[in-house]
UniProtKB/TrEMBL annotation:
It comes from Pedococcus sp. KACC 23699. GO terms for molecular function: structural molecule activity. GO terms for cellular component: bacterial-type flagellum hook. InterPro entries: Flagell_FlgL, Flagellin, Flagellin_C, Flagellin_N. Keywords: Bacterial flagellum, Cell projection, Cilium, Flagellum. It is found in: Bacterial flagellum. This is Flagellar hook-associated protein FlgL.
Length: 302
């Protein structure tokens, strides 16, 4: 028959009190932080799930930033192309007016001077920048997409890409259009003598009063304008796709956040109830322990 000594009894009571206090402190920590997992030992399985969800959340956040950056690229290009289209409509009106025999040399020279100014405006929009990079230069590292003097294209034909989806097969999207696609022969035409662009040819034809040259330049202008509008449609289509991806990404981010909250978060009402019960139980245990654990003579002598 085993004998329970006072030391054994005291040790068991203190171990029970320590366990109860530990549970109480853990519940208090959960309530103050709002999280059920404070360290991996709280739940190794849930910790692994939480780490996976956090990695997915970070990836979703990065994709969201990529989409925002891509939207800005496309919006900047769209504004520049829209303004250029308006300018080209004005140039076309001047060409038609210059073809009218009622306008004399002085009027046509004035029109040519306006075309020159409009060409400078087109050149400025073709060299539009975003974060210090030419929007229409593709991936080429260059100060301007088009040479300020000759109007020659200085970029390349590779559009800027952004990762907009976790799907490796279709996760990237072009968020820019290249200048050779958008502005074609407006500023520089390699096939023309001296590489003279359409706008410069229109200005020269207006000054010379050459009706044939004006007619040819008008046809070239219409062709270049159609290419610009087609490019603007491409920008619009990519913007719509980005908006769709952005909406889907927001839904996915919300789903990940909800799952993470379910794994890491606490049930506030349940946690408060548990804390109250544990506090009551601990106080009761303290009272019972005070009656069971009696001080010995050695306790007084220490």
């Amino acid at each position: 028959m085993s004998r329970v000594t006072p030391a054994t009894l005291n040790s068991g009571v203190m171990a029970g009190l320590q366990s109860s206090l530990s549970r109480l402190q853990q519940t208090q920590e959960q309530l103050s932080s709002g999280r059920r997992l404070s360290r991996p030992s709280d739940s190794p399985v849930d910790t692994v799930a939480a780490m996976t969800l956090r990695a997915q959340s970070k990836q979703a956040d990065q994709i969201s930033r990529n989409i925002d950056d891509g939207m800005t690229w496309l919006n900047t290009a769209d504004q520049a192309l829209g303004q250029t289209s308006t300018v080209l409509n004005r140039v076309r009106s001047l060409v038609l007016a210059g073809s009218n025999s009622t306008n004399g040399p002085d009027e046509r020279r004035a029109m040519a001077a306006e075309v020159d100014q409009l060409r400078e405006a087109v050149l400025g929009m073709a060299n539009t920048q975003y974060l210090g990079r030419p929007v229409f230069a593709g991936t080429q590292d260059t100060a301007t997409a088009f040479d300020p003097t000759t109007g020659a294209y200085a970029g390349n034909s590779t559009a800027v890409q952004r990762t907009v989806s976790a799907d490796s097969a279709s996760g990237t999207l072009a968020v820019s259009v290249t200048g050779d696609q958008a502005f074609t022969t407006l500023l520089h035409d390699p096939s023309a003598t001296g590489g003279v662009g359409v706008l410069d040819r229109i200005s020269a034809a207006l000054r010379s009063g050459d009706a044939t040259a004006l007619g040819t330049a008008l046809t070239d202008l219409d062709t270049a304008s159609e290419s610009l509008r087609s490019t603007q449609s491409t920008v619009g289509a990519r913007t719509n796709r980005l908006l769709s991806v952005q909406a889907n990404g927001a839904v996915r981010s919300d789903a990940i956040a909800a799952k993470l909250s379910g794994v890491e978060g606490i049930d506030l009402a349940k946690t408060i109830t548990d804390l109250t019960l544990q506090q009551t139980a601990y106080q009761a245990a303290l009272g019972a322990a005070a009656k069971i654990v009696q001080p010995s003579l050695m306790d007084f002598l220490r």
